[in-house]
Specification:
The complex is a heterodimer. By secondary structure, chain A is an all-alpha fold. Chain A is about 35% helix and about 5% strand. Chain A has helices at about 5-20, 35-40, 55-65, 70, 105-115, 130-140, and strands spanning about 30, 165-170. In chain A, helix 5 packs across helix 6. Chain A starts with a helix and ends with a strand. In chain B, a hairpin with a 6-residue loop joins strand 10 (about 195-200) and strand 11. The longest helix of chain B is centred in the middle third of the chain and has 8 residues, at about 180-190. The chains are: A mainly alpha, B mainly beta. The interface between A and B is large, with 60 and 71 residues. Strand 1 of chain A pairs antiparallel with strand 7 of chain B, so a sheet runs across the interface.
């Protein structure tokens, strides 16, 4: 056993001795299913957590023009904030362009981030169908999905992003 | 008697670190002249002073000591950064009001009476904890640094950025963080055997979200309620934040609202598209968690000016996300020779450590730099070494050696060396 590992074990033992669950006051209150459904935003790359809904790129174009174009530019080409489109094939070049299309490894992340945080002045105001559709529009502009392909909780996790295998994990639990 | 501590221990006049281990120099070389004879009083000694006050504010003469380079993304007010002014600070504790900020859509005004921390997912029993409940749990406190992994990214610019130290290295700070070990709360909810990760969400407008390996959550993670003895300030996550000692700051989710226990990372926007490091071959490194061993000389640093030739203190901060700092070397001749600096007495794991060297500057142009080594044997790399495999799109996790140029006139500027 390495010194580091040994110290980790000693520290864990110390922590457990200091404040084990047995000594803790156990003041957590049960959470009902309705509350859980309301606070659970987590969406995993396999699609776990995606809500029921549907949207196509054709529908999403209007959502994009209304809520996104001011910061992200016409066609997602970038403006005062990040470009969302383009850059595929550029990552190994001298001028890499990191966009949703060129860099992001999972399509679920696009839906997840929009649902949490966008539009920046009014997060939480888009409907689930609007989020699916604007996600589809961003992916369509990157050449990843067809214009009339319906994205749903079933189909979104099946989308393979161009840079899906471009990442090396520095840390593996 | 000759004081051998005044003999140079490295090139260009670097002096023995024992100067700071055994008190000052003999003969009052570094001391101010004796005060006036006492017949005449200064004006502030001729009348009663100001009364007591409920909140102690800094001296009006220190009003210039502020967070610097406060800026937000275009069209937003709270999506940006502010930097800790280390060029004005000493010691290892950062005053809470000067702790750097990085927010993703402003600082929420969380009502502590309504706020709950809910832990759910792969657990036996999802549970909700309010602030009153958490206040009754066994608590720990530790002095740890917190560093944004974008700190020092300015050093990747092709030419040295001529800006104060804080604008380059001000996204690190150290505090005493107090709170409830997350392991205690995870034990209470009962983590299922298939669990490997947790996903933490904040109660801010973008529900900032990061995945954290379960082994870190069970090791030294805390749900922090206190910073430097007082409740967290809003800009640091009031009323509660996740705190992960030594790991990139973005993971210590502020305004902590939910923790979902999972068997995989959520691959959130920040952990994939932002805080990852593109390599020159087009691949990118993901989940680079412990912050690398690092140091920087805070005084003298950019924008300062030395006076006449003579003895000066070279002082700075060193830290590592992998444990204690065991040694800091200082060079005043551009890295040709080095000597070990003195470390202040508080050398704590995953904390800032203050180092000091004495330098007899002869008035000639000089390049000064520091190099830290941690207890795992990690040595702070040169800038050149870091750039070897990095793409021009690389920005985060920079921990290269920082150099400052002292001109013949004493002016200090940023230089690559």
């Amino acid at each position: 056993m390495s010194t580091r590992r040994f110290m980790a074990v000693v520290l864990c033992a110390a922590l457990i001795n200091h404040a084990s669950a047995d000594e803790a006051p156990n003041l957590g209150k049960p959470v009902d299913a309705a509350t859980l459904a309301n606070i659970d935003y987590t969406i995993l790359p396999d699609g776990d957590g995606l809500p029921v809904g549907s949207g196509t790129a054709r529908q999403g174009a209007e959502v994009f023009q209304q809520h996104c174009v001011a910061c992200h530019g016409e066609g997602g080409s970038g403006g005062v904030n990040d470009a969302l489109v383009g850059g595929q094939g550029s990552l190994a070049s001298d001028s890499p362009r990191k966009t949703v299309g060129s860099y992001w490894p999972y399509a679920t992340t696009v839906f997840d981030y929009i649902r949490r945080a966008m539009p920046i002045q009014a997060p939480g105001t888009l409907t689930t169908d609007e989020i699916y559709s604007v996600t589809a529009y961003i992916l369509f502009m990157n050449g990843i999905v067809a214009e009339d392909a319906a994205l749903t909780a079933d189909t979104l996790p099946q989308v393979t992003m161009p840079n899906r295998d471009g990442f090396i994990w520095d840390y593996k639990p | 008697m000759k004081d051998d501590r005044l003999d140079a221990v490295a090139g260009n006049g670097l002096l023995d670190r024992r100067l700071f281990l055994r008190g000052g120099l003999a003969g009052g070389t570094l001391l101010l002249a004796t005060a006036a004879n006492g017949v005449e009083r200064e004006k502030w000694m001729k009348a009663p002073g100001a009364p007591m006050d409920e909140l102690g504010e800094p001296s009006v003469h220190e009003a210039h000591v502020k967070r610097t380079s406060v800026r937000s993304s275009p069209g937003t007010t709270g999506t940006g950064v502010s930097f800790t002014p280390h060029e004005h600070l000493d010691g290892i504790i950062t005053p809470s009001r000067l702790h750097f900020e990085r927010h993703h859509n402003g600082i929420p005004d969380v009502d502590p009476a309504q706020h709950r921390l809910i832990i759910h997912g792969l657990v036996e029993r999802p549970l909700s904890f309010d602030l009153d409940a958490l206040a009754r749990y066994p608590k720990v406190s530790r002095i740890n640094f917190l560093e944004c992994s974008g700190n020092s990214g300015a050093c990747l610019a092709p030419e040295p950025v001529q800006a104060p130290l804080s604008a380059i290295h001000g996204l690190v700070a150290a505090s005493e963080w107090g709170g409830v070990p997350l392991a205690v709360l995870l034990d209470e909810v009962g983590v299922k055997p298939t669990a490997k990760w947790i996903v933490a969400d904040g109660a801010d407008a973008p529900l900032m979200s990061r995945s954290v390996p379960l082994d870190k959550a069970m090791d030294d993670a805390i749900v922090a309620l206190y910073q430097n003895g007082e409740r967290l300030r809003p800009s640091n996550g009031y009323p509660m934040r996740l705190f992960l000692p030594g790991w990139e700051g973005n993971m210590s989710v502020k305004w902590l609202r939910t923790i979902k226990v999972t068997d995989q990372p959520a691959m959130t926007k920040d952990e994939t598209s932002k805080y990852s490091d593109l390599q020159s071959d087009g691949s990118a490194r993901l989940f680079t968690y412990p912050m690398g061993v690092k140091s920087v000389i805070t005084s003298p640093s950019h924008g300062m000016s030395l006076g006449p030739a003579g003895i000066y203190q070279v002082s700075g901060i060193a830290w590592s996300g992998s444990g204690r700092i065991v040694r800091v070397d200082v060079s005043v001749d551009g890295g040709r020779s080095w000597a070990e600096a003195a470390l202040d007495s508080h050398v704590l794991p995953k904390s800032l450590t203050r180092f000091r060297s004495a330098w007899r500057w002869d008035g000639s142009p000089s390049v000064i730099m520091s190099r830290a080594i941690d207890e795992q044997g990690n040595v702070q790399p040169t800038r050149q070494k870091i750039l070897e495999n990095r793409s021009s799109g690389f920005f985060y996790h920079y921990n290269g050696i920082q150099a400052w140029q002292v001109a013949a006139g004493g002016e200090v500027t940023h230089v690559y060396a």
